[in-house]
Amino acid sequence: MATFPPPDASGAPRDLLLKVTPPRVPRHLVSRARLLSSADALRDHAVCVVQAPSGFGKTSLLAQWRLEYLGLGVPVGWVSAQSQDDPGRLVQSLALALRVAMGRPAFGRSLFQDDRPGTLGSVTALLAELAQAALNVVLVIDEADRLPPASREALAYLLRNAPPNVRTLIATRPDGRLDIEDLVAYGQCVEIGPALLKFSLDETLQLVQARFGARVDRNTAARLHELTEGWPLGLQLATTIIARGADAHAAHTVLGDMTAAAGELQGELVRLLLVNLDPDDRDFLARIVVLDLLHPELCRAVSGVDDAAARLARLSNDTPVFAAAEGGEWLRMHALARDVLRQRFAALDAAEQVAAHARAAQWLAAHELLDEAAHHALSAGQHQTAYELAERSLYESLMRRGRQATVLEWMAQMPADELDRRPRLLLAAAWTLASSERHEEAGRFVARILAQPGVSDALRCECALILGGAAVFADDPDRFVELHAPWTEAVPLTDPLLLQSHANRMAYRALLEGEPALARLRQQQALRGHPGHGVDYIRRWSELVIGLSYAWEGQVLLAEQLLRPAVAGAEAEMGRRHRFSCNLAALLASVAWERDLPGDAATLLADRLDVLEHSGLPESLLQAYRTAARIAAAEGAEHRALELLDALDAAGAARRLPRLRIASLAEQVRLHAQRHRAQTCRELCERIDAQLADPTLPQGPLWRRSVEALRDVARAHAAIAARDWPDALAKLARADEQARQRKQGGLHIELLGLRALALERCGQPAQALLREAMDLARAYGLQRVFSDAHPELGAWVGTLAAEGAQAEIAVAPLAPAVLPAPASATPASPGAVLTPKEGEVLVLLARNLSNKEIGRAMQVGETTVKWHVKNLFAKLDAGTRTQVVQRARILGLLAAGH
């Protein structure tokens, strides 16, 4: 029979009191929307199991949930499990926790008087008391992995038989299985693993902002996220290190120098995790850390440890330094821990290091993992073997997975004569250089390829594709079209990768020639005509081209629908700072800005501008800097906006992209015109004219047309700044004609609005023109086009929109406003009185959400929410938010459940 410490006055053993005391909630704990207890993925499950290694914030999440339930008035019992908790002690701990939570001193008294509290009968008695309590309760069990097997069985019995008024939240390590897979299968239990517990970039930005405010900017916070990979423990350590700074400047300096921050983080990691490991485990980790990806058999081959599989499984459960990679049995070590352990590997005997690399190369090559095998062979001094493996793998690795960085590393390490002996390596190098700021070097590699004997038409066509890519990155559309023209009809290609690349070029050519719809058609035909495995990366470029075509037309709703999943997929597959991910994100950021989602736009651009400067498409680089500058201007930081536009000019100069320099000046004209700085605008326009007069600039018609459009729009803004409205009308008409010819729908709508403003200032009828522009903007999803064009235009549009809302009220049926609808009546359709967006805002108001929370829920800006709320006040003749909800219910515009 189990013995227990003396009871207190309530009959509970005294040593249980600390077990049922919840931990203190961290002061800077950030609630993550997707992990709220009320989130759609969690709220309908009776049991939630948080299962992850230490360091993933399991206890913090339980503490957050506890506060949420307490805020709803639901009692929450907390139990911290211990290894000595046999079934009897566990049952008594649960009873005491519930007694304290519910404030019922007599709850569970019989359980403390039971001579055999460890039987299933005592668990049943506890469940019976809970059912009779007629009160919704939440039971939290932290560190359930510490429970002995018999207690886990008792807990599983409790979970299977819990009454409907009980919800159970459990935290456990991966090895703490509770054998409740049947509850998961039947939808009664949801499991939350390490992948969900990691912080997303948005959540990291929220955490850093809550902790440090404006002292740390988005770029620096994004670098912190990259450093820690969203690992909760890593973020906690990093913010602690930063907070040690004596003042704001010190904090920013520590975080700004990411090398120093990484060093401190690594030191903390060693102190907290690795020092406590068994020496054999540390030695094992130090030997396998040379591997980027870990497999049990690979680790056994490299370390020589027979029980490598069991040791790896145990360490992945006990420490938070491992993460799943590519499914199956593969794991990856966290970068912070890997860097620390590689210092230990470097301290091994040189011969031992060479042997480890050689064993890794042999195993990897045998399993057709040629990229990794080549690196290890080179480190083992097996140079010819390494070059042969690289030749077999690099071209496919580049074309199928976009691994440009790997190609550049090999180019730096491989002698030039080796490259000349290996044509596929030359091709890989040429493709890589063509799609970067080093595009001019690609031409020299193509010349070396074509100088070899026996060059086929297929190879010549591929070389044309490479040079065409270089022309795109050189921002020379006329050269691109010239290179593509000979291969438009007869395409001597059979490789699906190259056929897809050719289709992408066909679509891009149509876009450059002002045919965005044709560009999409070309891509759709290619997707139907070139199916095949392994072309996913090349096909991703088609998503970029289609997204560009929608943005070209101003169809930002369609662009957003395409680009959001495309960006998420690229980041998951290739990483957030991969060049392709950054190009996609730059385009999506510009779309998000037009959709009035400045927070999304800023997050998409965070810590990416430096990548785009070196390997971004000219259009991506332009969109990224232009969007960042507009965000800064909207935040009231005009100096920062001008700095960003100067940086765009500098990037254009460094990469010899004159269109970007002209675009920078044109955007500065727009910014100054909004404040009617006529002289500054004239000077900037003179600089544009001086640059266009340079005879060394490209003279092709496509390039000239694009920069002349920028010049014409800038001149129109300069006339607006000078309030020379007749001149502005003439210049706007000229720019609008070009926009319509090139089918640039967003620019056309903007110029329509500005023309209406100029007409109104000239005393001519203009409302019809402006309303047409407003209707087009609404259809396309352009929510910032008029306020970005000029603040006076934005204010006028707001006034007309308000008048339209009043007109809706005038024609709405008002008779039902006097009497409430019968209980059995069907609620009236809000469409008769309210717009769909206003109806959505009304539902969220009924949930007592703030404007900011409504904006997040609807993915719109807070200003937009305020506008809808103002319209609701007017339409429902209400003076407070409560009155709005009450009158909406009376009118039948809001269901009783809301």
Automatic annotation (TrEMBL):
Pfam family membership, one: AAA_22
Keyword DNA repair: no
GO biological process: regulation of DNA-templated transcription
Keyword Transcription regulation: yes
Keywords in alphabetical order: DNA-binding, Transcription, Transcription regulation
Gene Ontology MF: a single term: DNA binding
SUPFAM superfamilies membership: C-terminal effector domain of the bipartite response regulators (SSF46894), P-loop containing nucleoside triphosphate hydrolases (SSF52540)
Protein name, per record: LuxR family maltose regulon positive regulatory protein
Superkingdom as given in the UniProt entry: Bacteria
Family matches, as InterPro entries: AAA_22 (IPR049945), P-loop_NTPase (IPR027417), Sig_transdc_resp-reg_C-effctor (IPR016032), TPR-like_helical_dom_sf (IPR011990), Tscrpt_reg_LuxR_C (IPR000792), WH-like_DNA-bd_sf (IPR036388), WHD_MalT (IPR059106)
Domain HTH luxR-type: 827-892
